[in-house]
Amino acid sequence: MATSATSRLIPTGYCWCGCGKETGIGSFFLPGHDKIAESAVILVEYGGVPRFLQDNGYGPGGKNPRTELEEWRKSGRRER
Ligand SMILES: [Zn+2]
Asked: Looking at residue 6, what is its pLDDT?
């Protein structure tokens, strides 16, 4: 199973949040379910957004999330 950050991700036809429902062709998530999955993983793995930010090099003294987002958008929204 490919889990590398550089591997290409392919939708499976079922929502990746874990709800078990089918998605449209080419979609990873049902509408809004990406945020459910994101919040769940951040809480379970990091305990909250501050730790999530700090452990990924953001926050006070680190990278600025808003600036990084602007640069990511300008760069063509590449997948990481
Ligand atoms: Zn779902």
From this structure: 73
2 band by pLDDT with thresholds 50, 70 and 90? very low
Q: What is the pTM of this model?
A: 0.77
Q: 71 C-alpha to center of ligand 1: Å?
A: 29
d(CA 15, CA 35): 12
- Cα Rg of the chain, angstroms: 15
Distance 27 CA to ligand 1 centre (A): 11
| Centre of ligand 1 from the C-alpha of residue 32, in Å | 8
Closest CA to 13 of 2, 22, 1: 22
